[in-house]
Amino acid sequence: MKKSLLTASLALLLLLPACGKEQPPLPSSPVQPVESQAELPTPTPSPEPVISDTPVPAPDPSPEAAVWGELRYDQTFTADDGAIVMLVTYAFPRLESAEHPAAEAINSYYTSQGEEFLSAAEETAQWGRAEYEIAVQSGFTYMPFVEELSFQMTRETEDYVSISREIYANNGGAHPNTYAFSEQFSLDDGHRLYFADFFSDPDTALSRIISTVESQAQDLGLNAGDATSVFQAEQFYITDEGFVFWLQGGALAAQNSPIEFPVPYDDLSDLVKLW
After folding, report:
1. pTM higher than 0.90 for the full model?
2. Which residues neighbour 36 within 8 Å (Cβ) at sequence distance 6 or greater?
3. Which residues are CB-contacts of 227 (< 8 A; sequence separation ≥ 6)?
4. For a disulfide at 217, which of 43, 189, 201, 227, Cβ 3.0-4.6 Å?
């Protein structure tokens, strides 16, 4: 159908000049061409293409995009009579892209972390079993211990990933506690990145950061000297806005959760070498 319409349209276009204004008559005698005495230039032959035996290198394939999932450990610990004494849920990042160059190193790191956490949980569960027995003998209600570990991908670029982790622990104490962890990994091969890897002059960067921590600690009503005395440069993660340094939960008196000190990128931009 489309072909028939196209053919009809072309025919109509060819007929339109005949239906319009009368065309001027052709000249009665054709114009005679003027013969030129100049010799026509000899055409220059086109060069023959040169065929090379050297293969053209193909462009390097784009690296496989990182696809993240979760490595999860759920464990229930019980007493001899089957009563639950402890519940744990540990979630770790997992690079699901098996062919990604960083997958093996990062996944191995967090698999080892999971095994260490479970081993520590077994020891904590022993305390729970002991407390459960005391509660039964005393007629008290026993509340099972609980630990929950979560993570967040706070920044990811073509070069690295920054991961913040936090564990909530309620293990029979006067109050629950929260503890922080964080890691940075190269996405080239999965090796760990540390504070000095991000700055051209780590000492100058650290000096500025400590000044910021002191100022923010005072704003929070904390003793600046106490805050800087327990400050550790490797306790940080990265966001799109800058660096976030943290003091561990319990590092300062009466502080049961991590305390964070954000340092904007602009404050360190002249020293940052990996962003």
Report:
1. no
2. none
3. 213, 214, 217, 247, 252, 259
4. 227
* Nearest by Cα to 88 from 106, 115, 65, 63: 115
Q: CATH 3.30.565.40 spans which residues of the chain?
A: 65-193
Higher model confidence: residue 179 or residue 9?
179
Spatial neighbors of 19 by CB under 8 A, at least 6 apart, are none
Compute how many other C-beta atoms are within 10 angstroms of the C-beta atom of residue 121. 22
Distance, C-alpha 19 to centroid of its chain: 70
Report the share of the chain in percent with pLDDT over 90. 72
What is the residue whose two structure tokens read 């990811």? 156
Confidence of residue 62 (pLDDT cuts 50, 70, 90): low
Q: Does domain 194-275 have CATH number 3.90.640?
A: yes
Identity of the residue numbered 149 = L
User: Higher-confidence residue: 33 or 93?
Assistant: 93
